[in-house]
Amino acid sequence: MNWKWLIRRLGFMLMVLAVAVILNFLIPRLMPGSAKQAYAGKLPEAVQVKIIARFGLDKSIWEQFVLYIQNTLKGDLGMSFSNHPNSVTYMIGNALPWTLFLLLTATIITVPLGYVFGVIAGWRAGSKTDTGIQIGSLSLLATPLFWIAMVLLYVFSAQLGWFPLRGAETAYSGYTGLKWVGDVLWHAVLPVLALMTLFGAYEMIMRNTMVTTLRENYIITAEAKGASENRVKYKHAARNALLPLITSVGIRFATIVGGSVFVENIFSYPGIGSLIFDAVISYDFPLLQGAFLIFSIVTVVVVFLLDLVYLRLDPRIRY
Amino acid sequence: MKKRLVFSFCSIVLVLSMILGPLACGEPVDTTTYRLTAAVTDLHESSNPFLASGRGDIRIMSRIYEPLVVGSGGAAIPRLAESWSYDDSTMSWTFNLVQDAEWSDGEPLTAADVKYTLDTQYAGDYSGGGDSKEFVDTVTVVDDNTVKITVTEYASAFLDFLNSMYIVPKHIWEDVADIDTEANLAPVGSGPWLWDEYVPQSHVAFKKNPNYWGGTVNIDEMVLEIYGSQELALLALKTGQVDMVPTVELYSYIPQLLESTDVKVGVDRAANFYNFLFVDHREEPNNLPAFRQAVSMAINRQDIIDFALFTYGSIPRMVPLVPEAIASEDVDWPGLGMTDEARIDEANAMLDADSDFSDFVEGETRTYKGDPLNIEMTIVNRPADVQQAEIIRENMAEIGINVSLKLIGFGPMMGMMFGGGWDDWTWSTAGHGAGGSTLDGLAQEFGADPYNVWYDAPSLGWGEDGDGGGTTAARALQADLRQSRREDDPATLATLIEQIQVDFAAELPIIPLSQGNTIYAYRLDTFTGWAPQEEMDGQGSSGHLLGTINILALEPIAQ
Asked: In this complex, how many residue pairs, one in chain A and one in chain B, have their CB atoms less than 8 Å apart?
């Protein structure tokens, strides 16, 4: 890896973030109604005046945009309208760890699972095992994520009572150490399972690439040399078939981020997704902008990290 | 090998979470600690009592701070003020504070705190005390336990307004540099609960105030858990994960709750709230009484009660803001008792009679002065509100009006309606008027002033000049009403009330939809001594279960 590539890559990331910042500003303002209207009667007049001045809500859209960029560059994401006088940074600071925990746990579990099942299905393409796995994957892909989340909640929380109905941890439990870890994991099981529906996509990508790879001459060569089945499967075929899966993880991370809005709401999980939902309902522009910005940064950083993984996995690629 | 290790690790984490979790959480935190858990769906937004405005905020502030009086069963009952009186000759209210009340930091609560609170609320134009600031001239400390409030005009609802005036400690707040940016994350209050922990979007936890002046709290802790929906909150109650749901808004779930012998569903049919359809009178044809009457005629109120309120409600009187005790029985809904078909035909005929409206054609949207009648109806995203709105949308389609729904939160809805922020056709079913019983109580004590409610909704734009002040005739009628009350002239008062009802029926400045009952639910296997009583402070947020009267009565059942 050379420095020129790294600088170019970072420059590209900054450009993507710049576009995201602009969209973050525009999208909430495309909603019907306005924050100024929504809060006109809710806060005391003196406070309204301060907020309107601070965020320039009485200024033209261009002036508002300049103010927004200036404040964002200073790291000032503003004050939440609906959680006044709490700052957006405070609200996001509380929510972000939970969302990252959900997203990363789901991804870390789903990708290896997709990989393993994809390899098995691809290796035995056309067999009953392959058909079974394909039916499972397709079913997961075809079912809306929020529906799966609701079914999980209904069956395992409401009916069986195995898991809690809400939250990221038992409220006001006072748990510490391992007990707290166990409690958090217990609360995360269903939301993570709901987010794991992307398993189907990963498995199918891996399976299809595997089928193509298995027709390559070097696989026949490896078999002719007497390499063991597992060595051919994992060392020669799966490793070469892995690259499209890694690309897909980057692309689909944005999907899973969007999915977290539904999942967090269904499980009353106190993450960024829940914040976004409440902010939309409350016309809380600063909070929406802040939450979108954080999601954009997280997605861009994850894609960048996957670039590095790609580099590590494919010896042909040299930047 | 490495891949196997990664896969094994992930699998172990997943399996461990399924095993460790239940093991870790299967036992209570502390068997000697009694905790009351309530499921709420309103988010907490601000802990600053001057800025608290949403239902979630008021519900939490009401646990820590207290007003001088609270409303219950239509009458004011003592809280920080043990007694009060009004002197007509000096136009002043005198409040005698409870003896020995103190703040949670041990400082005494005095009349200086009351004066500081009222002066700061009014000077800062904060929302505490509602419209009381329109009437208050001066607040004077008579002695440590007595405060006098001189008013510019007698107002029948003055004590009602004070329900939301949370008295705060002067010695804490006078040192706050900027009240508007004070988060107040360690509140010092006088109520039965001490603020202990707040986790945004998750819960607010309280410890009991061991020195509460009003009596002994028998519960050690109270946790208000925030649920994403009423369905989940009620499910949590049914499965024993919480002890109470203070406000039940998902009526369709009530039969399931009733199946459980451990759950008690309370229905207070006297503590009503009204659902209204508010129309922006600044927009045509909303400003036409005939149009409003046609809309009203088309609405199937019985469907709203049957399918949105699941029978926990009733047809509202045509002038619901007139106290029951003095209401006329003669004025009733036009169209009540008619068949659906006849009612819709009548509503269509009312619109067809005006040449500005196009004639009704099945399946098509009518036009008014050439523009199609596409109306956006803004509603709060609560189940019953949405269900009512859907019924209204169907009814409107039957008279050629195309209604689309826009869902927003309760706070923005109130801001939009009462902040004058309407700039297009915006209808609302969110308006919860004062309960009939409250007005009954006020009527008995102070006389009625039903016109106040529709005069004090400036955003409606109702009136000749669109300024929300009503018509000249209505203003004159209100002046006469106040005069008759001052002169204690019941005969004139009754005549005027009759006139108001006739006038309201002709104008329909707002369209009453239904009268809903207040419903709450709690478990019987964790606490005993439940004494639900209507206790309104703030925006009526205490309801029946979280109020101090019930809290002091509760005794934990040893498990």
From this structure: 212
